[in-house]
Amino acid sequence: MSTKERILDAAVTLFSLKGYDAVSVGQIAEAVGIKAPSLYKHFKGKQDIFNAILKEMQKRYEIQSKELQMDGNNAAEDAGVFTAVSEDMLVNMGKRLFIYFLHDDYVCKFRKMLTIEQFHNKELASLFTKQYVDDPLSYQSAMLALLTQAGVLRQEERKIMALHFYAPIYILLTLCDRQPEREEEALQLVEQHIKQFSRIYQKEVRS
Amino acid sequence: MSTKERILDAAVTLFSLKGYDAVSVGQIAEAVGIKAPSLYKHFKGKQDIFNAILKEMQKRYEIQSKELQMDGNNAAEDAGVFTAVSEDMLVNMGKRLFIYFLHDDYVCKFRKMLTIEQFHNKELASLFTKQYVDDPLSYQSAMLALLTQAGVLRQEERKIMALHFYAPIYILLTLCDRQPEREEEALQLVEQHIKQFSRIYQKEVRS
DNA sequence: GTCTATAAGAAGATAGAC
DNA sequence: GTCTATCTTCTTATAGAC
After folding, report:
1. Residue B43 domain boundaries
2. Which residue from A196, B37, B162, B183 has the fewest beta carbons nearer than 10 Å?
């Protein structure tokens, strides 16, 4: 790992814990194992480091989006076939999403950093909403629409259905960001949530 | 309004926008219309101002909790009577909760401040979770249990049911904190969400 | 690319006049 | 209770030696 990368890594770690303003260039340098002035050979300044993190993260996000969409298309194709096991499919999908978002080191730190900095300017606010609200909702919406068309789930408003699927996962994820000691509890709730979600949205079998 | 109160007001406004570390004592003083050293006649220091905001907000929260519980008990008693209009009752309750949380000036600023500072220490993390996750969930859970017992809603896991009711409201609330321009859209989604929530959780009338 | 030395400014906080 | 003046420390950033 190059020094430039190590600086970004140390910076995102500190920013995710204390926020941009509470972290000094000296602290970043110390975490890397160099002195503050050496850092200016790699970046123009503190803001430049922050921008580099943003740029790097957006690059990773785009790559990850494409991969997820591929998985999604596969999962969606599966949905048509395995109508019976749709609950397990949803549970696995949800848990996988949850664990990935929670345990991927860079993703996790970046999310915390954005959480702290989201009110700082409009671009950061938009970025947060895009990555953690709009994109997940539109992705889940598309997936759930396929399950509806396949006749597995009830015909309900798609967007709201996606909200019912994603919002509980989101609130539990942000809970874990804040209190990692409650991760096990949260993971169980995610599982329970999805099971109950598929139960209540299932097409009723006449009793 | 006393100078002490005006300092707290200016401080919470600035903290909710930029976070504790990005705000200087001088900026707070300027917002109040005094010079920085004058501020030290009212508070021991910057941290003391922050603590006072915290204390004040917890006082208000406890008062508000008691009031809400009273409303809740009333609403719950109503629930047994008006089984037919339970959907409207839920919609009104949800929208009222949403609008109160979103438009009460101090509540709103304090929530943003806590959002920014939640990772700073364990007490702030616990406080955030209590006020915006655990307490609302346990309150909603109690209310929904009464609707279940009254035979209006299906018998499902209470905690998850509360999560399905509250999580969408929570995610839309945090969206509005970040992007107030999307408030109208969010409010419509809240309404749609609750209507769909009561539809899918309703005891099925045999077709 | 790393270091030491250092500039230039802002920060939190105190002393003491009024 | 407010002010000016001041202290000390920390901050970002640069200059220049190695």
Report:
1. 1-54
2. B37
**Is the same domain home to A103 and A162?**
yes
**pLDDT surpasses 70 at B1:** yes
Average pLDDT (B13-40) is 98
Nucleotides of D under 7 A from a protein CB: 1-5, 10-16
Where residue B148 falls among pLDDT bands split at 50, 70, 90? confident
The number of C-alpha atoms within 13 Å of A43 and in the hemisphere containing its C-beta is: 21
Between B171 and A92, the more confident residue is B171
Tokens, residue A130: 């895009």
Q: Which of residues 115-174 of B touch A (CB under 8 A)?
A: 115-116, 118-120, 125-126, 128-129, 133, 154, 156-157, 159-161, 163-164, 166-168, 170-171
Examine the domain organization and report whether B80 and B181 are in the same domain: yes
CA distance A76 to B63: 49
Domain check: are B90 and B145 in the same one? yes
**Residue A192 near chain B (CB below 8 Å):** yes
Do residues B38 and B72 both lie within one domain? no
Q: Is residue B61 part of a domain?
A: no
